[in-house]
Amino acid sequence: MLLAAVVTIVAVALIFDFINGFHDAANSIATVVSTRVLSPNLAVAWAAFFNFIAAFAGGVHVANTMGKGIINFEMLRAAGPTAVLMVIFASLMGAIVWNLLTWWWGLPSSSSHALAGGMIGATLPVLGFEGLVGSGIARIAAFIVLSPLIGMTLGIGMMLASTWAVHRQTPLRVDTWFRRLQLVSSAIFSFSHGTNDAQKVMGIIAVVLFGTIWRDRPFHIDWWMIISCHAAIALGTFFGGWRIIRTMGHSLTKLAPIGGFSAETGGGVTIIALAELGIPVSTTHTITGAIVGVGSTRGWRAVKWGTAGRIIWAWVFTIPAAALVSVLVYGITLAVVRLVG
């Protein structure tokens, strides 16, 4: 019975990873599609490939943070296998529901913060505030603000440097060069997306396994977790939807290839650097900041601030909304368990 429950929760975690890729596909390909460097079909295949190969060079720092940096893992493990399974199930469902809602609304919200919010909400009924790692949560909250600002800064810097480097060239030559370079920049960003986002679910799967059937083993991330999570997110990216692509690629600002290259490179470098520090940031927030930064180099009016405002509100509500959904899911799950028991 326990083994079946564990397998089910691991499957739900991989489904979340797939939805994460589906939900965040636009982050990886919006700029390269909006500049018409690649067709949508080729763009998603390109992004999915680099999502997957990040498995072989991305590390597991973010996975360890998600596994032990939000919830007090030892305290949760001590509460017993049933508590572990119920908390993680409610966490995942809270994140999944919020991701699907924001996908339907066409808002590029953060899967990272949805999962963090789900974990916070599901833990409170079981362990209270003592079961939460305050420093880890504070760090994640801080980078809700910092990651888009860093992405914006690097996006502006890349745009200014690129513009200066080619200021004596003809517009046609510049456009041709940067169409080719966008293949590199989109690969960098897709790699960073896989590095950051796939690791979140590795941490969740490790909590499930080492908190239940492998309670006598030390917490660590196995190779099969790495491969399966990157495969799931790559498949999700491959089948990603168009709703958010329209918002990211067209509604925020109009991008030329040089702008797409600058935004993707700035965003991708930011995410890879922060992943090395073990900080699970939002790829959505970061690329949005980079796109806004690139657009702002053409003047304040080049950015559609009304659209940016809608996106920011989605960022603000993500953690509390996912936490609320996970609390409700936990309550329903507990009632069902008691009724069956």
UniProtKB/TrEMBL annotation:
Cellular component terms (Gene Ontology): membrane
Protein's UniProt keywords contain Transmembrane: yes
Superkingdom of origin: Bacteria
A family per Pfam: PHO4
Membrane-protein topology: Multi-pass membrane protein
UniProt entry tagged with the keyword Nucleotide-binding: no
Residue stretches in coiled coil: none
Keywords tagged on the record: Membrane, Transmembrane, Transmembrane helix, Transport
Subcellular location field: Membrane
Listed transmembrane segments: 44-63, 83-106, 112-133, 140-166, 223-245, 311-337
Principal place of residence: membrane
UniProt GO molecular function: phosphate transmembrane transporter activity
GO biological process assignments: phosphate ion transmembrane transport
InterPro entries: Phos_transporter
Protein name as annotated: Phosphate transporter family protein
UniProt source species: Corallococcus coralloides (strain ATCC 25202 / DSM 2259 / NBRC 100086 / M2)
Gene: pit
